[in-house]
Write a structure and sequence with these properties.
It is a single chain. The protein is α/β, with parallel strands linked by helices and about 350 residues long. Among the domains are: about 80 residues, Nucleic acid-binding proteins (OB fold (Dihydrolipoamide Acetyltransferase, E2P), Beta Barrel), CATH 2.40.50; about 160 residues, Rossmann fold (3-Layer(aba) Sandwich). The protein has a six-stranded mixed beta sheet with strand order 10-9-8-11-13-12, sandwiched between helices. Strands 1-2-3-5-4 form a five-stranded mixed barrel. Helix 2 packs parallel to helix 3. About 35% of the residues are buried. The C terminus is likely disordered.
């Protein structure tokens, strides 16, 4: 028997009895979910009644707590349990929300101290990290590289707000001890960052062994190759749970929510102080934003970042409302229906 509480499963969510067993999603593949259950690792599909026809359950993602019915082959997931935190992004290709991870305690926004360093990308990670409900922490990797990294560190701290910023090296171990307070047994940590910033090396250093494959970066632009190909939850020997994600250079903003306010307090304090309530912050007289920029109280680059992320968030909310009103099926829903037809056609040929 596997004690799923060691995988972060809250005791209060464990049902006292019943045919469905508690489980946590450790990886998501195409139409198939990998679970850790009281009976060990299992694979599962979604029960069509609960997830397709009744459409009342949230599609599970990596880190989700679920209830699943045991079966000789693939188990059946029948319920997605309440989430304490949830991180999603905009799928730019399909224009829909894409779940990334759930039930994290901390989100490490990973940047490297080389040409890959990007304040714009960091602002994006922080906004989505705050909005997820987890605690964002900025990690600047590759501190062992030659050169003075002081300016990058100062710039990161300037935009991080309440999120702590740590510079470290997975290679030499420099600064690794700074992460200890955020990585206690039973804690779930998600790692976000573009390819080549050193997420896999960082996780290996935390694990004390090589559990993630590592790819190099191109020397001329510090760009990396995707090492992680799917989101997965791993239990380290220390009792810490980590969720690694495929390298995502651009994270489309789905719904920034409160995360935008928390990530941009320097901007938010001037909003609502304009002479006109419908101020566009362009050429209107009495604009508090324009005045703050002119007086040096607000960095114009921060204002541009805020406008970009807020605009993406607003467009995503409108798109989501339209899709819900039209009842447009999601990609995952359509895939599940195709799988069901294929299954029934194979096992019940008279029906299809």
């Amino acid at each position: 028997m596997t004690d799923i509480k060691t995988y972060g499963f809250p005791e209060e969510l464990i049902p006292p009895e019943g045919p469905a067993l508690p489980a946590r999603v450790t990886a998501v593949f195409k139409g198939r979910w990998q679970l850790i259950t009281p009976e060990g690792q299992q694979y599962a599909t979604l029960k069509t009644k609960e997830y397709i026809y009744e459409s009342g359950e949230e599609f599970p993602t990596t880190g989700d707590y679920v209830l699943a019915l045991p079966a000789p082959g693939d188990w059946q997931i029948v319920r997605t349990l309440p989430r304490k935190s949830f991180f999603s992004r905009l799928d730019g290709w399909h224009g829909t929300e894409q779940a990334v991870a759930a039930n994290m305690d901390v989100v490490f926004a990973v940047q490297s101290l080389n040409e890959n360093f990007s304040l714009k990308r960091l602002e994006r990670y922080l906004t989505l990290g705050w909005n997820s409900g987890a605690r964002p922490v900025v990690v600047l990797t590759k501190a062992d590289l030659p050169g003075d990294h002081g300016e990058m560190l100062r710039e990161a701290k300037a935009v991080a707000g309440e999120a702590p910023v740590f510079a470290l090296s997975s290679k030499t171990g420099e600064g690794m001890e700074q992460l200890a307070p955020y990585l206690r047994p039973g804690t779930t940590a998600a790692f976000l960052g573009s390819s080549g910033v050193g997420k896999s090396s960082l996780i290996n250093a935390l694990a004390g062994e090589e559990i993630m494959s590592v790819s190099g970066v191109r020397e001329y632009d510090s760009a990396g190759r995707h090492t992680t190909t799917h989101r997965q939850l791993l239990l380290l020997k220390s009792g810490v749970l980590v969720i690694d994600t495929p390298g995502m250079r651009e994270l489309g903003m789905w719904d920034a929510g409160e995360g935008l306010s928390t990530a941009f307090p320097d901007v938010e304090r001037f909003l609502g102080r304009c002479r006109f309530s419908d101020c566009k912050h362009e050429r209107e007289p009495g604009c508090a934003i324009k005045a703050a920029i002119e007086n040096g109280e607000l960095d114009p680059e921060r204002w541009e970042s805020y406008k970009l992320l807020n605009g993406e968030s607003e467009r995503s909310r409108r798109l989501g409302a339209v899709r819900r009103k039209q009842g447009q099926p999601s990609k995952a829903l359509a895939k599940s229906r195709r799988q069901e037809r294929k299954y029934r056609g194979k096992n019940f040929p008279g029906e299809y």
